[in-house]
User: Which sequence fits this backbone?
């Protein structure tokens, strides 16, 4: 039974340490994370355009929800 208590105590200790790392970060404290380059999609228009070109050239149905005949039109 003491080993179960030690296991629970160790689990509680690590959960407390893990919970201490979860804090809210203010926008002025984000530093490099606030830069546009760190966004998941830093250039959404360029990505959309590339997706359109890719879908048009591949002429495949189902590529990024577009269908085309290879001419660039939908």
Assistant:
């Amino acid at each position: 039974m003491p080993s179960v208590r030690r296991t629970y105590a160790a689990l509680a200790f690590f959960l407390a340490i893990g919970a201490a790392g979860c804090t809210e970060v203010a926008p002025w404290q984000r530093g490099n994370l606030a830069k546009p380059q760190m966004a998941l999609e830093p250039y959404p228009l360029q990505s959309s355009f590339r997706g359109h070109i890719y879908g048009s050239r591949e002429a495949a149905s189902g590529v990024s929800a577009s269908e085309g005949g290879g001419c660039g039109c939908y």
